[in-house]
Write a structure and sequence with these properties.
The structure is a single chain. It is built from 19 helices and 2 strands. With 414 residues, it is mainly α. Strands 1-2 form a two-stranded antiparallel sheet. α2 (29-39) runs antiparallel to α17 (360-380).
Length: 414
């Protein structure tokens, strides 16, 4: 324990080095942060005080990573607003339902096709359905896409996924850990989560004038303390009622985005977002043991990646179309939320706790690693990818024909 500060310093140095390499090659930093985390960890080595195993500091680094997720989602909320989200409520509900139905159904088919028993099939479906809110937030901010037309749908799907996750974990925990599940308890949990999220947005918006007055604080130190207190209290409380703490942070950001202090809050948060966000991806890499990645799990994960890429793209197109978005904006939805991460690992750990097949852990780790690396790259190159696919499937010409058909009846009526 005497060298824990030195260990954390070593971790930060590795993260900085990987970031510099990413910048040199003009790549997304996320894969580099994850890969350097994988390269070290319990399976690594120690040279004098340079302990690359990070055993003593693992818990602290993990906690710093959790803080990073909060700042990433909080900042994403600040870049958006409750007003835009409320106006798009109906289309978000439709888009979120489409996304979950397609990806969950494909996950069930995948698990069945791989020959897994029923409980393992349900775990596989959970692993492949939920996207990584942390990676999505990082990509949107890095690529400056928070103002894009499709971003409100992306945020809506992230929150929709969280309600689904609260319900699904309740069901799966009952089946896997105890062999039973209370329908009443599951429904109550889902209703509480949904009511909490909607209530926080609605009440928060009503209280904006009060918040404006309360945040008229001249001292930068006190202003920071008040903002951090609100963020951590709401995010932490959210976790106690089965709403992910990251979603709680997103909701706080959405509310504070309506205030007159939003620019000051953004300026305060950016350094913390960047620092702790980088630590999150490093700590995520620490949880993946490269020695377990191979064999049967590798082929299973590759099959799951193909299914996820297909399902996400189709779901993005349909969700965007339901909201009246252009084909290009709709394709951006599927390509942006393709990354998988923390929630998939939670699902795999649930299977481990229930004594299910041991292959679920390496399968989930390899699957998450591939999509955590591939997701940011696909998002960055989404314009080129869409152009290539449009040549094959003629998305734009079909969209123009649909728009023309819609206008024709309207003109005839006049």
């Amino acid at each position: 324990m005497n060298h824990i500060v030195f260990e954390v310093g070593l971790a930060i140095a590795l993260v900085a080095l990987s970031g510099l390499l990413a910048a040199k090659f003009s790549f997304s930093v996320i894969p580099f942060y994850i890969l350097v985390g994988m390269a070290v960890g319990p399976h690594a080595f120690q040279i004098w005080h340079l302990d690359f195993r990070f055993i003593e500091s693992a818990a602290l680094i993990e906690f710093m990573g959790r803080i990073g997720v909060l700042f990433l989602l909080f900042y994403l909320g600040l870049e958006f607003s409750v007003g835009r989200l409320v106006k798009a409520g109906k289309s978000i509900a439709m888009g979120g339902t489409i996304y979950i139905l397609i990806n969950f159904s494909l996950g069930l088919v995948l698990g069945w096709g791989l020959g897994f028993p029923l409980e393992e099939i349900l775990v596989v479906a959970g692993i492949t359905t939920i996207s990584s809110s942390a990676i999505v937030a990082k990509v949107l901010v890095d690529l400056k896409r928070t103002a894009n037309s499709e971003t409100e749908m992306i945020l809506g799907i992230i929150m929709f996924e969280d309600v689904f996750l609260a319900v699904y974990i309740s069901i799966l925990s009952g089946l896997v850990l105890s062999g039973s599940s209370s329908l009443g308890g599951v429904l109550l949990s889902a209703l509480i989560a949904l009511a909490y999220m909607l209530g926080l947005l609605i009440i928060g918006r009503k209280l904006v004038p009060v918040i404006n007055k309360a945040l008229n604080i001249r001292s930068g130190e006190l202003f920071a303390l008040v903002i951090f207190a609100i963020l951590f209290l709401v995010a932490g409380f959210s976790e106690t009622i089965h709403v992910a703490e990251a979603i709680g942070a997103l909701l706080v950001g959405l509310v504070l985005a309506e205030t007159e202090h939003v620019k000051r809050i953004e300026k305060l948060i950016i350094p913390f977002r960047d620092f702790f966000g980088a630590i999150f991806f490093f700590s995520f890499g620490l949880t993946i043991d490269p020695r377990t990645l191979g064999g049967e799990a590798l082929w299973y994960s590759l099959a799951a990646v193909v299914v996820t890429l297909l399902g996400n793209f189709i779901a993005g197109l349909l969700a965007g179309r339901s909201a009246g978005l252009s084909p290009r904006a709709s394709s951006n939805i599927g390509l942006t939320i393709v990354s998988r991460g923390e929630f998939s690992i939670i699902m795999a750990n649930l299977g481990k706790a229930g004594g299910l097949l041991a292959i679920l852990q390496p399968f989930a780790a390899m699957y998450v690693l591939i999509l955590a690396i591939l997701g940011p790259l696909l998002t960055k190159e989404s314009k080129w990818i869409y152009r290539m696919l449009d040549k094959l499937f003629k998305f734009e010409s079909r969209h123009v024909k649909r728009m023309a058909q819609k206008r024709t009846p309207a003109s005839e009526e006049q």
